[in-house]
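G., the chain you wanted modeled:
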Amino acid sequence: SDVSSIHDQPIVSEFPDVFPDELLGIPSVREDISKIAFRTHYGHYEFLVMPFGLTNAPAVFMDLMNRVFHEFLDKFVIVFIDDILVFSKSKEEHEDHLRTVLQTLRQEKLYAKFSKCEFWLSSVAFVGHIVSAEGITMDPAKVEAITKWPRPTSVTE
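Predicted structure as tokens:
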């Protein structure tokens, strides 16, 4: 099976080039399984879930997350690839929102990796920003990384 043919002229969806571990949980489209199969001396293998490196994998995952959380987006949920931000005005409301998000994931047979989850934070780093009750600000660590970048000394740098 020639994998290069599916990458020759891809139609690229406009989402960032991110390939989180969670992409491996998205089922492959049945008619595309043979296109991404491979053979080794151990045998013939076909991906039943989306493998790393496919051009549109991030866009497919983002589309899935947008569809799953559609009714909650910008009300109390913001999703970016595999990051889910849940925001609320009170602790009671936040408990309801968290329950809703976790139940929605369970309904859709999607899972949050507990070791990567952070709960009940008053501020959180999200997509290069700090989100808190005071608002949204740039992440100082990101700003520092840019200001410490060495100044170019030639045109080619």
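Strands lie at 38-40, 43-45, 77-80, 83-86, 123-126, 129-132, 135-138.

Shout if anything looks off.
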